[in-house]
Amino acid sequence: MEARVTDKVVVITGGSRGIGRATALAAAARGYRVVVGYASNKTAADEVVAEIEAGNGKAIAVKCDVAEESDIIDLFKEADKFGTLAALVNNGGIVGKSGVRVDEMSAERIQRVMAVNVTGSILCAREAVKRMSTKHGGKGGVIVNLSSVAAKLGAPNTYVDYAASKGAIDSFTIGLGYEVAAEGIRVAGIRPGLIDTDIHASGGEPDRHHRLAHMVPMKRVGTADEIANAIVWLMSDDASYVTSAILDVSGGR
Question: Most buried residue, 126, 155, 186, 240, by CB count within 10 Å?
Answer without folding.
Answer: 186
